Amino acid sequence: MDDKKLMKTGTTTVGLVAKDAIVLAADKRATAGNFIADKKTEKIVKINDYLALTTAGSVSDIQMITKLIRAELALKDIRTDREASVKEASNLLAGIVYGNIRRLSMIPSVVHFLIAGKDDSGNYIFDIYPDGSVTKIEKFVASGSGSMFAYGIFEAQYNKDISQDQAVELAVKAVNSAMQRDSASGDGIDVAVVSSQGVKKLMTKQVEKTLKNS
H-helix or E-strand containing 198? Predict the structure, then answer.
């Protein structure tokens, strides 16, 4: 069997709704069973200038679906002569995931995405579950093997008036908490902010500073 098929992202990825932004965060460890296959995995993927994904699941399927959604959104923008809304992009991605897991195959696709973006009406985040279902997130969400630890932090510390900087700090704290207890999560944290300015990934030093202060 192909190594790419064996590799899974035992993962912690999170998304937070702040007052004027969406904050995404994820660890950087990819595992193949009990083996740590990669310590520098990029689990926050920029799709275009206004959309970003967090990824969890089978690496080969994540790579294929990421390429597909980029191409499909580019074609949709050309055909409609406008940028797709975040909801439209989420439904398009969910359709791909739905079709992928139901294809006739010996190895079913298992992927979980959080998609965040901005459009003319605001900033949004949707949870695309492995079965292709779509859920709009009003407060916070986590996915992957370390998600239960992240949810514990969010339930205790999130509030609806949280600022962008506070959301970044809380997201880092949640992923760090997961990394302390979930052996499949680790090796650093990536953070991205989606706002009216588009998608911006924070530098590693900024994340390290936030981690020290949290």
Answer: strand 198-201
| Contact status, residue 50 vs residue 119, Cβ threshold 8 Å | yes
19: how many CB neighbours lie within 10 A of its CB?
12
Q: pTM for the complete prediction? A: 0.87
Residues 82-104 have a mean pLDDT of: 86
Per-residue exposure over 54-72, b if at least 16 CB sit within 10 Å of its own CB, e if not: bbbbbbbbbebbbeebeeb
Question: What distance in Å separates the CA atoms of residue 156 and residue 22, rounded to the nearest whole number?
Answer: 19
Residue 134 · residue 128 · CB < 8 Å:
yes
Nearest to 141 by CA among 128, 123, 122: 128
Q: Which domains does the chain show, CATH number per domain?
A: 3-213 (3.60.20.10)
Q: Return the amino acid letter for 142.
A: A
Q: What is the mean pLDDT of residues 89-105?
A: 81
Is the distance from CB of 171 to CB of 147 less than 8 angstroms?
Answer: no
11 is catalytic: yes
Computed from CA positions of residues 92, 98, 101, 104, in that sequence, does the dihedral angle turn out positive or negative? negative
Higher pLDDT, 41 or 161: 161
Handedness of CA 118, 119, 124, 128 (dihedral sign): negative
Q: List the catalytic residue out of 9, 11, 13, 210.
A: 11
